[in-house]
Structure formats: structure tokens, C-alpha cells
Fold this protein.
Amino acid sequence: MRASGSGGEPLGLDARLHARDPSAHWLDLRTGDLRRQYEGPAKARVISGVYDPSRDTAEHLAVASLPDAFDVLVQLHEVSPVRWLPR
């Protein structure tokens, strides 16, 4: 599952990261060229608790500077439900 609009296209930061590399990957934003490329405001969706795809456009985090807010970004294109560990 990934953030998508009604047509299935990725939205916001998800779209930018997907265009860069459609496989799972990570970006170190602490120094260099990547920091400059991702400088500036960004919106990323937030998934916590129960995921409701109908709320993708409403559930987001907005930051004034992506590298100032995060040291590293990890992009995963597939997630799965929690599997509780046996007691």
C-alpha cells in the first residue's frame, strides 16, 4: 500500500521518492547533494494506528525543511498488518 490519489498515483513526498527509485531505499539527508535537493517545505503522509486510505489526503505532516526535520528517509513501498508476537 502507498499514498495515492483516486487514480492510484503516488502523492506528495511519496511521489518524489518513488520517481527517484521505485524500490525500497533510504536517503541520508544530513549532508551534501541530497540535502540540497530536498531542502524546502514538504508534505508526507502519516500512518499511525488504523490505516484508512480514504483519509490519505487529510493525514499528513508538513515541514518547513525536510533535511532539518529528518536525518534519514526510508521509503518502503509495501507494508503489512502487525502480527502480534506469541506470549
